[in-house]
Amino acid sequence: MNKSSWALAVICACTLPCLSTAEAAETLKLITGDFTPLVGEKLPEGGPLAEIVKRAFAEAGYQSTLEFLPWKRGYASTKIVRYDATFPYAKTPEREAEFLYSDLLYAADRRVYTTGEWRANVDDLQSFKGKMYCLPLGYGAVKELNPLLEAKEVQVSTPPDLSNCAKMVAVGRADFLIASPDIVESVLDAVGLHGRLKPSDKSFGRSEYYVIVSKTHVRAKELIAAFNKGIAALKARGEVAKIVKRGMK
């Protein structure tokens, strides 16, 4: 082996492991919004879902930073790859056209919340006809209501957040909102409306949330695979359930 070949071999041998380490230590930029008690800037660790997402990526060798923005801005910024990933998002056809979805991050049964003067019959969609559905800006409508929404038999109001929805339903400016009890009860407590809205007797579908990465991200599939690997390891050790239980107290 001549001196040039020997030097090249040494450089390759020293460089390749370093590249691998650098790639593994890459810092991802994550973005989310306020969805108390699941995620929130004022919550410990950013909330249980934020802790799970960061730890899942760490399991796969990625460090991460987390920022909070209004949902619409965070979504749009992730779409154009200013951020590597965002969460927690439910599936909609529009989103699935633009983003890759991870394996399931979190799921919970939903209830229909009203003042109690009118109670939704979740077994009969016709009971929702002519009512005003409060759907915060950036949230996806529940698929169970799609037939009525497409026929414009249910009106939709889109205030900035779920807190505003709770207030609107409480004063009669909207008839109902739909969300999981853990989310709604936290919001009602925060805005001084504890006990003012009543949940439906039965669940109305299930909310399922995921991490999403823009399809225009050059490593979208790689990042989704890394998260899936990480959260699978956390679930196998029972850590996801522990984080959620601790964070929802």
Fold topology:
Layout: H1 3-24, E1 27-32, H2 48-59, E2 63-68, H3 71-79, E3 85-89, H4 93-98, E4 99-101, E5 106-109, E6 111-114, E7 132-134, H5 146-150, E8 155-157, H6 162-170, E9 177-179, H7 181-190, E10 198-199, E11 206-214, H8 220-236, H9 239-247
Parallel strand pairs: 1-2, 1-3, 7-8
Antiparallel strand pairs: 3-11, 4-11, 5-11, 6-9, 6-10
Describe the protein in words.
By secondary structure, this protein is α/β, with parallel strands linked by helices. The chain contains nine helices and eleven strands. α2 (48-59) packs across α8 and α2 (48-59) runs antiparallel to α9 (239-247).
Sum this structure up briefly.
This protein has helices at residues 3-24, 48-59, 71-79, 93-98, 146-150, 162-170, 181-190, 220-236, 239-247; strands at 27-32, 63-68, 85-89, 99-101, 106-109, 111-114, 132-134, 155-157, 177-179, 198-199, 206-214.
Broad CATH class of the largest domain: Alpha Beta
Beta-strand level of the residues, as a percent range? 15-25%
Low-confidence stretches: 3-24
Largest sheet: 6 strands, mixed
CATH superfamily of the largest domain: Periplasmic binding protein-like II
**Cα-based radius of gyration, to the nearest Å:** 22 Å
Number of domains: 2
Under the CATH scheme, the architecture of the largest domain is 3-Layer(aba) Sandwich
What series of H and E elements makes up the topology? HEHEHEHEEEEHEHEHEEHH
Q: What is the CA-CA span between the terminal residues?
A: 66 Å
The secondary-structure class comes to alpha/beta
Mean pLDDT equals 90
H/I helix tally: 9
- Percent helix, as a range, is 25-40%
CATH topology of the largest domain: D-Maltodextrin-Binding Protein, domain 2
- Number of extended strands: 11
Shape: globular
